[in-house]
Write a structure and sequence with these properties.
This protein is of the alpha+beta class. The protein is built from 14 helices and seven strands. Helix content is about 45%, strand content about 10%. α2 packs across α4.
Length: about 350
């Protein structure tokens, strides 16, 4: 606050539930993110904090709640972390708007979240999936292990983003199926990381270029509506364009992830017997993890990999720190040699 300024009077009877509703009404994030915020508030936060007056919530109560979440075996660590983040955002917003005099989440550590593990497919497994996959969809998993695309990005590949001469794939769209799209698969000109990143270019290996050309000759791309997304606008407010999408269902609809997973992905993995250490089926996202892991393990600079997959270097370091540590063995000797003491000429040694 400016010197000499005084805080606004705190509203004594304002409850957490009332302010959470106000906060939700002002969110301009992606519709799917707002839906997850609303779910966290309705299912978990309001039952625990809804009736409490904002000004009466104390740091000790918050710390006790975090411990309760960690001790709840029915609550996944990642779910508890999501609830915690929403709770912190609501109280920070209340402080910034003068509804509370201090933030009870300040310097409180959130619930512990165990390190997540991902499945890394072997090259043989990747190609076995490609060979076994239904021909209508077989290029989709290849886009995952060859270019590191997210599932919604792979489903949304269109003809105009494929540059076979430069062997580059420009990723700029995704397929969304949410309440805002009336749960119909919709092509949207937006990446998951928008507005931080609007497009990303990924090199295509020669085998992918050949497979794309063969696929488009056999199944020509078709025109569909394309939502031209703009920041801070809902999908219904955005303008429309057209694009020629590659992948279509047998019913001539764009493909949603549920249909793809249930009808193609899971049956193929079951048929091939591909499971993780716990006996669970790997996810499509594990193809992306495989691409990133393979790149890092083979010495491709992390900033280059981050640019290809649309993550920040910080995110890459946090998620794949174990692979980056392995580079100490691979490149440690080279790095040590760069600053080693220069050897002295033989004559100077003799002198």
């Amino acid at each position: 606050m400016a010197p000499g300024a005084t805080p606004e009077p705190v509203e004594t009877n304002l409850t957490f539930k009332q302010w959470a509703a106000d906060w939700l009404g002002r969110r301009r994030a992606k519709e799917i993110s707002v839906a997850s915020y609303e779910s966290a508030v309705r299912v978990h936060l309001n039952p625990r904090w809804g009736s409490k007056r904002l000004r009466t919530i104390r740091k000790a109560q918050v710390e006790a709640w975090v411990q309760e979440m960690e001790a709840n075996k029915d609550l996944a660590n990642s779910t508890a972390e999501g609830h915690w983040k929403v709770f912190k955002m609501i109280l920070k917003d209340a402080l910034q708007n003068g509804k509370i005099a201090s933030n009870p989440t300040y310097e409180v550590d959130g619930p512990y979240v165990a390190e997540s593990t991902s499945y890394v497919f072997s090259p043989a497994e990747c190609w076995a999936i490609y060979d076994e996959f239904p021909k209508r969809y077989r290029l989709i998993p290849m886009l995952g292990f060859a270019c590191g695309l997210r599932q919604a990005e792979a489903l949304a590949v269109c003809e105009d983003v494929i540059d076979t001469d430069s062997k580059l794939l420009t990723v700029r769209r995704q397929i969304l199926r949410t309440k805002e799209t009336r749960y119909s698969p919709t092509l949207v000109d937006r990446l998951k990381t928008s507005p931080r990143l609007n497009t990303k270019d990924v090199p295509m290996p020669p085998y992918l270029v050949d497979a794309l050309e063969e696929f488009m000759e056999r199944q020509p791309p078709r025109v569909t509506q394309n939502v031209l997304w703009e920041h801070k606008k809902t999908l219904t407010e955005c303008k429309r364009g057209t694009a020629r999408a590659l992948f279509w269902s047998a019913r001539n609809n764009l493909i949603c992830r549920n249909h793809f997973n249930d009808d193609a992905w899971k049956p193929t993995l079951r048929k091939l017997g591909i499971k993780d250490e716990e006996g669970k089926l790997p996810t499509f996202h594990d193809l992306r993890h495989t691409f990133i892991s393979t790149c890092l393990q083979n010495g491709i600079p992390e900033h280059t990999v981050a640019a290809w997959v649309g993550d920040s270097v910080e995110e890459l370091r946090r998620t794949y720190s174990h692979l980056l540590r392995d580079h100490a063995d691979t490149h440690g000797a080279i790095a040590a040699g760069l600053t080693a003491r220069p050897s002295r000429p033989a004559e100077s040694v003799a002198a």
